[in-house]
Amino acid sequence: MPQQRSLRFADDPHDRFWWHHRDGRDYVPAVYEVLTDDEWQLMEEWYAETAAIGAVGEWNPPAMSLIHGFVSGGGLSRVAQIGHYHGYSALLVGFWLRAMGGDRLLVSADIDAQATAFTQRYVDRAGLRDHVRLLVCDASTEAGIEQIVAALGGRMPELILRDSSHDYDETKRELKRWIPRMASQSVMVINGM
């Protein structure tokens, strides 16, 4: 039942649920409410498995709400992600793109092959292969950018989600390579430095 989905997080003491612990957060954010029951069940399993292996490091509900607004409100069809870690945002964006219909794609790159294999397993279980493509590459290099653009059919993304290294110098290197290549009216969302 969508009305109950993430409300239990308010009682979970883990820091990853900080948003749900705050007063006035006794509702399910739209980013979870729009999921089908099967999609939410998969996310529940994803939360349990990532907690069990200590792989916590996902975007928070306010950031995902902003991204959802760009993707859905903008009717986007080409999204690139730099750093997917264990796949939280890749799964959510994939679910949204699938619900929007048509030929919409997220290409997500990470340098960690093990995290990518974990994420691929969930992408496969979710049936998202038509909407989510994962790459193992360094998106801060020209070769990595070319791999991402090629996977997007040779076109630059409309939205870039940057959540790779949180090192200041590494962030500057990525921005220096990506910003000059960004398409007109495209947006980059950066998760922390």
How does this model look, in words?
By secondary structure, the chain is α/β, with parallel strands linked by helices. The chain is built from eight helices and five strands. It has helices at about 20, 30-35, 35-55, 60-75, 90-100, 115-125, 140-150, 170-180; strands at about 80, 105-110, 130-135, 160, 185-190. It has a five-stranded parallel sheet, with helices on both faces. The longest helix is centred in the first third of the chain and has 17 residues, at about 35-55. The relative contact order is 0.13.
Fill in the keyword field for this structure.
single chain; 193 residues; alpha/beta; five-stranded parallel β-sheet; 5 strands; 44% helix; globular
Computed Rg: 16 Å
Helix content: 40-55%
**Beta-strand residue percentage:** 5-15%
By DSSP (H or I, 4+ residues per run), the number of helices equals: 8
Number of strands: 5
Low-confidence sequence ranges:
none
Question: What composes the largest sheet?
Answer: 5 strands, parallel
Separation, N- and C-terminal Cα atoms: 37 Å
Structural class: alpha/beta
Strand and helix order: HHHHEHEHEHEHE
Mean pLDDT: 93
Overall geometry: globular
Q: What is the topology, as strand order, of the major beta sheet?
A: 3-2-1-4-5
